[in-house]
Amino acid sequence: MQTKTMYLPGFANLMRPSRAKTEAVQVMAEASSIDGLAALVARFIPTELFKTAAGQRNRLFTAMVTFTAFLGQVMDRGSSCREAVRRVQAWFLAWGQVTPDDSTSAYCQARRRLDLTLIAKAFERLCTWFEAETKKTDLWLGRTVRILDGTGMSMPDTKENRSQFDYAAGQLPGCGFPTGKLVGLFSLATGHLSHFMLSNWKVHDARLARQLLAWLLPGEVIVADRGFCGWPFLASLVQKQLDVVVRLSASKKTKTSLEHWPKPQRRPHWSPALWSALPKALTMRIVRYRVSEPGFRTKDVVLATTLLDTKKYPDEAIIELYSRRWQIELNFRDIKTTLGLDVLRAKAPELVLKEVYMQAIAYNLVRGVMLQSARQHHRPIYQLSFKGTVDTLQQWTGLFGHTDRKTLNARWSDLLCALAADLVPQRPNRSEPRAIKRRPKPHQRLNKPRHKMIVRNARRDKKVRNASKNALS
Q: Per-residue pLDDT averaged across 162-181, rounded?
């Protein structure tokens, strides 16, 4: 029997047996989760950006609702579109509004309809917040440092994705996945992703990196690995009045500490106007040091930099700066492993770019929370746990919905305090083998398209059955 009360409307389900009570609690939890996520977004991105323009159709899945639901999917690696719709339903139900139906069609259409320009603006506003929060004490010898590197990602094997993203090397048609490449710039001071470029995996990292130069300001320092140690790219940085610290490629041999690299005689695939605008030669300072750790082979590392003033930028400072380049590998691990950028789920190229942008926004939102926690409790930002912050936000976002501003600020302070207590140990120069302990399942590899493998296996099973019958007869 359902118990009703006139004094507590909306709580009738809580008076029912345990199953209905559990369902009601789950609905309220999902509503608080997406409401709290929207409150989190509003702390870093102006909500006016998502307002419906005059003359546009009023929809259940507005830009803000779709953006927040999409963000919730990104921050929860295994979240499906069905789960996103359930969260939106609970959100609308908690506010007493008309709820969308159970079909995921409307949400998927809204997600496809969500303007990429709007998502890019949200990403830019978030990056602007980081630039305003960066202090002079965060800079390296008074200079802004950006770390540059590239990474790869795979996506569903659809005809649309294959039209723009090719298979990786060695993959047969129907047996692999389209692969993309992302080259990103991270801030060394705050760890946020400031700019990125996405393209086919066949495009060289330095070619994508040149497209990022338009967003860099003169006087900034770029730190990169040996994959970017090409004369044309380094000359482009010098032309932009940027300094660089890069590991010397193995093909270059140096003997002195100050060298002049002349312009190559052979012009690469550049336009004559761009190539002639580059300087005639580069003056590079060479810094050498040895890495010696017990149990590992001693390595000689050679760096090349345009920071020629040895008094202002001594060798020890250059070496220490390049040692922090490893932080970008950890940043990519946070995006790819924790948030799921390594395997995308979008089945069309335009949705692939949207998903990458949403991954970048989710990453920067987490970094923004970590930065506020580090500022308030005087902790180094790189000692806060990214995975711990994501887990804490998933459990605490329900506290930020349906509450007044005073209570919201108190809960936010409690969240920042909890994050500041979750520190990771400092382990510089740690070296671990890139090996997998858990063995994979002993299934056969898909070396042919799936439908051909099914036909082959059916014929094999038929032969086995016939052989068994003949043996019994």
A: 89
* Tally of domains in the chain: 2
Helix segments in 114-181, DSSP class H: 116-133, 159-164
Taking only the tens place, the pLDDT of each residue in 289-336 is 888 776 556 578 899 999 999 999 999 999 999 999 989 999 999 999
Q: What is the DSSP letter of 312?
A: T
Q: Tell me if 219 sits within 8 A of 238, measured CB to CB.
A: no
Signed CA dihedral, 129, 131, 136, 139: sign only: positive
With H, G, I as helix, E, B as strand and everything else as coil, classify residue 69: helix
Residue span of the structural domain in which 30 resides: 12-114
CA atoms within 13 A on the CB side of 237: 28
Query: What span, in angstroms and rounded, lies between the C-alpha atoms of 324 and 140?
Result: 11
Helix (H) or strand (E) segment spanning residue 470: helix 450-472
Q: Which residues contact 292 (CB under 8 A, 6 or more apart)?
A: 298
Determine the Cα angle at 372 with ends 116 and 35, to 5°: 55
Please enumerate in sequence order all residues whose Cβ is within 8 A of that of 378, keeping only pairs 6 or more positions apart, or say none. Answer: none
AA letter at 98: V
Token couple for 291: 């890495």
Distances in Å between the Cα of 238 and the Cα atoms of 210, 225, 252 are: 12, 17, 19
Return d(Cα 46, Cα 111) in angstroms, integer: 20
Q: Is residue 391 part of a domain?
A: no
How far is 264 from 283, CA to CA, in rounded Å?
14
Is residue 449 assigned to a domain? no
Same structural domain, 271 and 146: yes
Say whether 147 sits in a helix, a strand or coil: strand
The pTM of this model reads 0.86
Phi, psi angles (nearest 5°) of residue 209: -65, -35
